[in-house]
Hints:
Chain C: Pfam families: ETF (PF01012). By secondary structure, chain A is α/β, with parallel strands linked by helices. Helices cover 28% and strands 27% of the residues of chain A.
Amino acid sequence: MILAFVEHTGGTPTEPSLEALTLARELAADTASRLDAVVFGAEGAATADHLGTYGVETVHHADDERLDTYAPEAWAESVGQLVDTEGPEAVVAPGTDRGQEVLAHVGAKRDLPVVSNCLDVEAGETYELARQRWGGSLVEHAVLDSETKLLTAAEHEFSPSEADTVTAPTVRPFTLELDESDFRVSVDRVEESDTTGVALGEARVVVGGGRGVGGPDDYDKLETLADRLGGTVGASRAAVNEGWRPHEDQIGQTGAKISPDLYIACGISGAVQHMVGCKGADNILAINTDPEAAIMQKADYAVVGDLHEVVPELNAALGKEP
Amino acid sequence: MSSNDLPPETKTVIIGGGIVGNSLAYHLTRMGRDDIVVVDKGPLPDPGGSTGHASNFLMPVEHSKEMTHLTQRSIEQYEDMDTFTNSGGIEVARTAERVEELKRRVQSAKAWGEPAELLTPSEVEEMVPYVNTDLVKVGFYSPGAGTCDPLRAGEVMRARADEYADGGLTVSPNTEVLDLHVENGAIQAVETDRGTVSADEVVIAAGLWSPKIAEMAGVDIPLTPAVHQMVSVGPISFFEDYDGEISFPVVRDMDTQMYERQHGNDLEVGSYQHRPILWDVEDVPSIEEAPLSPTQPPLTDDAFEQSMQDALEIVPDLLDDPEAGIRHEIDGLLSQTPDGGPLLGPLQDVDGLWSCAAIWIKEAPAIGEAVAQWMTRGWSDIDLHGADVNRFYEYGTSRSFVKDRASEGFQKIYDIVHPAEQYQSAREIRTSPFYERQQDLDARFFEAAGWERPQWYESNSDLLERYEDELEDFRRPNEWDARWWSPIILAEHLHTRDHVSMIGDMGFSIFDFRGSDVVDYLERMAVGRVDVDVGKTVYTPILAANGGFVSDLTIARLGPEHYRVVTGGAAGGSDRAWFEGHIPDDADVTLIDRSESLCTLGVWGPNARDLVDSVAEEDMSHETFEPYTAQSVTIGEIDAWAMRLSYIGEQGWEIYAPMGQGQRLWDVLWEAGQDHDVRPAGMGVYGTTGRLEKGYRLFGHELELEYDPAEAGLTFHGVKDADFIGKEAYAEAIDRENTATLCTLSVDDHAPDGGERRFMLGNEPVLDDDGNVLVDDDGRRSYVTSAGTGPTVGKHLLMAYLPQSYAEEGRSLQVEYMGQQYPVTVEVVGSRPLFDPENERIRS
Amino acid sequence: MDTLACIKRVPDTGAKITLTDDDQHIDASNLGFTISPHEECAVEAAIQQAEAHEGTATVLSLGPPDAEEQLRTGLAMTADEAVLLETEGEEWRPRETATAIADAVRDDADANLGFDLLLFGDESADAGNHQVGVRVAEALDVPFVGGVSHLDVEDGTVVAKRDVTGGMEVYELDLPAAVGVKEGVNEPRYASMRAKMQARKQSIQRSDPPSSEFAGGIEKLRLEAPDTGEGDAEVLGEGVEAVQAVADLLENELEVT
């Protein structure tokens, strides 16, 4: 059995979870085994219909209301107990904060290796796999030899695809033996973000500014453009290091990974460390004075020009339209 | 202008888009060139070389006249482009020795025409309040110093070049040179990753990558990347009250070989103190691989440890600012050459290929201008001979030589360097066949162009006693004056004038010219008439088209179509390039370099004839071997060739023999010489004492591009009928009244304040009675071009160009040396020898 | 309160990463080395918390002898102590690394935990395994939270916040605890010159941890620099002349207006 760890919002699986499910189903096919999912939360059972379209046969729902709130160690212990009882060949989690964290705990608790941010997995006696290093700048090819394979799927690397045959999963609540100490870490509360804009990771349009913007004030132009397009503004690490933008705006290896419909990169050179943050974008438009800048090669569309001239004109052009 | 579509052909390709390449493009277009391509493998405006990380300050005063003038001219250009900030600069002395050095700095400033003064510690504190002046004994203030923005300057230069060229300039960044095409010894094309451009002329201005590019054409540009460590500390609250990049003078803490300079709210701390860290150019990462830039690798921490300690001592208040930290720290890569100088000019083995490398930000605009002048008209306003790329030709281009000398030279960047100081590394590269014998005689060797030449012989120390009376007034009590010097030189001189000495090897460069067009060709090169009888020798200036000196040398006619040119060893590389570059394509002239196959032994003094005659098969009498002629002779078993002339004004010969037989030649003369009281004598006699008494001019000292032959007193050839390079200017110079004339002066009093007797070494400013430096009508300042004691005339002699109104025999003037003024007298105006003015000895 | 920041020596890479000929490592022959960016923030956090709560900050690295350089960077940032678990330069996997760190931390205080707060980077820059912090915490039986973008310690409680869509999750952990921080949690200080100089003279505790053997595991075969898909951008024009084409693209083709 291949077990997928699925995160969801109100019963709807998250995009990264669907990506991980896609990888998990491939493994299930390769190993001719069943695909199951494990879900947490009060509305976990509600994922069943959706998971059926991904070919899941059994949805293991942790039946303990203490687990409705995210508690990494308790969740990991639950997955671990499921591993103990069900003996899956592999557990696949999304490469999210929670996915990585839960699987790392499982690995620690069951003394198993974990391979994070997988890009490609060939299941056999052992698993031959490719995984991200350097935030995606490099690929490591490796062999995993372990009784239970714990894997996370790199974000934005698998296109969620539904199964050829839709299943009607059984929802199987499972009970657990959990100590109070397993709950010593859990979400105490959630603070709403006080910013009104669209979060970088969620935005459909992101306007990024790099060192070429030249200073903090010049981001106004980019803000205007982002407003016009209903998007939000991001920045390269160089610009953040200059102190022009807060770190929250940083896109790249050590910042946000974005996946908008359109990313407009203004005055950004396009270093690998930046590109790994925006490769989830469906389209990239680069505006740069240097036609040789790396970003110009990696973008889908390019304008050779000074962002300080182009962006205001573009704002004006877009402003004319209703 | 900026384009990545390279034209298939162009007149000139400049490889490198840093400050040097931009300056070249600007000046070449300003001088009328309108077909130029600039390529750089990096982006613009910062292609990733040292232009992008230099500390960008310009301190104009150096001990080299040319370098000072180049920096002054560069400051003018940066100012003109609105990219210069005049902050002033202060060098501080922590030690007594450095105090003397800073006095010498003032002396050089006066000589080269740059304002400067010494400051007391409290004056230093007033100007830079953050310097810990408890450590400072004296400051040297250079009010003209400042900082520049070379990246912005590059943009301005490119824009101006684009306008001048009117569509004829292509600037192509991100273009990597893959190969240089050379055919028949001439550059044909530059192959890049964007296509191949045919070109008549290619300039390598690629900074520390220049050797790699030169190698593509099979030639050497001898430089190595070397680390200059720099850190930037900030933000410093003290600077927050001041607007702009720099509000305080740049501080050079000379004794620790460091500088501290404000840059906005940061303090840049740079060091030349650390151990030399040299790179291989192949190891310099690409732009994409480098986190900062290819020439900004990370700081080597352990090498910087002492520098941190020293910086914390000299500017503690700034560096201990609780808000401030090290924001930037690099091992900045720069180009280091074997002697620290730039590498400029045509590379002689490939026609049309030029080097413009190893240049600091402070001199780049002026060097671009000067090299552009050189390229477009054949000479530059500021003499670049000392920076000729060919000066290391055929001895000093190996990687190990470059590394050894660069390591040693790196430590001299801020050090106190005596004008006669010798390199200790990479020695014994060129030794004559006399070398072992000279070693046995306890010679003290100096090096010139790789050649080991005895400066004096310790084995002659017994002569000190013999000439005790003559030498008494000329011993040098001051250690600086006596460094790299010995009174034995003076004793050898006196012995030579009394008896006979053997001087060898002078390390000459020897070029034989053969071919049916050789007479016409050499006539065109030389001021003197060369179509003379076979066996005659001609001493002649070689001029540039402006009448300035390219060289001075001796030409001997060996046959109807065979000449031999003998020139100074140090000038060999550049002279050879000059001669080769002027052989017309269709002329039947072949240059054969004999420098490494012939050795030279001088035998001079009143006993010279008796000595040589005793071992020569031929009759060496005055009648059969006249002065200024050359003949084949057999000395003992050795078939040799001799010229009867003398740079020290004595009877005798320069005897040339095959290197392999040189030792035997020495032995034959040495054994026979025992009956004639022969002694070995060193280059101290040949190059200084003997020469100065005879008023002979030395290339690079008296003879240079800024003075013409009339001013130098070298017009004895008159104006010959045949055409020659520089003829028009030469003729004009003779007709025109001199603006200045080269004079010989003597020092009247070596201790006017009653203290230690001091002896000038050269490059001291010449002052009038009021203490003002003499300046001629062309704005040229008078300074001592050569200095040395004339033991026979009993005077310490100085040569200097004096404005016409001061060039008057018997006139009293002053010379400033180490902060003190000394009375001097004009002994001779012009080239008349002080010793034996009628040259009776040579003719005896 | 005593804090510990665990850091890793990694090459300081530029825009392009090149590999050694055998594809086993990054070609770092001409590169410098640095502390992973997240971990630099861990050091800063360790120092800040130690300063705020009157304790000491220690930096620890498992790596080759040259990792001393990164430890000295930590000391120059004013960490008090440095510990090097010296390896022979081979790559250690998360289980081995975590075991060695946990053992060292235990040893350090006679089997008691010598630190109140352990700080890790959210992931190392090079390997990116996301595990060492969790595994050390599990081995020492202390609570852990990763991906932390805001960190405070009040009255013996760690308040750690993690960015999620629309806001931040807040975790409260009792000390002793372990936290994995992300770049942005603070602004790492620049070392002063004096601190840097003093750091060069400070001693570093060294030990050679035994390399533990685990059944099963991961074996690296080779590294690969992925194809970045260059050269197919459609150039819409130069300068402001391109604006209309861009507007058309946004409005009609991509429909993002």
